[in-house]
Design a protein that fits this description.
Blueprint: E1 2-6, H1 10-31, E2 35-39, H2 46-53, E3 62-66, E4 68-70, H3 80-87, E5 97-99, H4 112-119, E6 128-131, H5 149-152, E7 161-164, E8 173-176, H6 178-182, E9 187-192, H7 194-201, H8 203-206, H9 211-215, E10 221-226
Parallel strand pairs: 1-10, 2-3, 2-6, 3-5, 6-9, 9-10
Antiparallel strand pairs: 4-8, 7-8
Helix pairs in contact: 1-2
Length: 229
């Protein structure tokens, strides 16, 4: 149920993916009073966010959230929220609303109900979900060593958000579950470089967490790839 879209450079990929997301949001807004978009952090989407921020659409009717968040203050350099605020919620997209996954409390697990309640205000299904990929085969914050990985990847799990300890990476995380990601009109997997491509191509055989997205048949999936510049 997936297709590959390959580009000669990251710049070309960023522009094309931003245009695709803008088109999806416009189409969703044509049929519904509000629309929502879930995005990932990391360095890969930074320039794509800047392209998307300039898109001409009714951003005041769009809600943006994160696929996952490190449990750090939103002003921390490791914060995915900080990245989204800096690179996406600017220019025309400054009019969009934002629902974060980080609360002021110190305990990530204790905040799950509060975050779930905040996310319940978002229009569903998402117009689109944008995922990234780690070198260990994780996407969202579904890390191979997480003790609750099975629950995170259970498509019948009624929970749409969960706290998790990645074990092999810093900071506890708050993350959408697979069930939440699948509740989308389209999933976009945004990767660059030969190393990430190799991880993705072996994901199902190796049982990496990202395989749960590749193998599902519920939601259309597009893989966006370009070589590292």
């Amino acid at each position: 149920m997936s297709e590959w879209r390959e580009f000669g450079s990251r710049g070309e990929l960023d522009a094309a993916l931003a245009a695709e997301l803008a088109t999806s949001l416009k189409a969703d807004l044509a049929d519904h009073p509000r629309s929502s978009l879930a995005v990932s952090g990391g360095s890969t989407p930074r320039h794509m966010f800047r392209e998307l921020a300039a898109a001409k659409l009714d951003w005041a009717r769009v809600a943006v959230t994160l696929v996952d968040a490190r449990w750090v203050d939103p002003t921390d350099p490791d914060s995915n929220e900080a990245l989204v605020r800096e690179c996406l919620l600017r220019e025309r997209a400054a009019a969009a609303s934002f629902v974060g996954l980080k609360t002021p409390g110190a305990d990530c697990t204790a905040a799950v109900a509060e975050v779930e309640n905040a996310l319940s205000s978002l229009p569903r299904p998402f117009a689109a979900v944008v995922l990234g990929l780690g070198g260990d085969g994780h996407t969202a914050s579904w890390f191979p060593q997480a003790s609750n990985l099975q629950l995170l990847l259970d498509p019948t799990n009624p929970a749409r958000v969960a706290a998790t300890d990645p074990v092999t990476a810093p900071h506890p995380r708050m993350t959408l579950t697979l069930a939440a990601v699948l509740d989308s009109r389209h999933i976009h997997l945004h990767i660059t470089g030969s190393a990430k491509r190799a991880v993705l191509e072996s994901a199902i055989a190796r049982g990496y967490p990202v395989a749960s997205v590749l193998a599902q048949t519920h939601t259309p999936l597009t893989i966006w790839w370009a070589p590292d510049d």
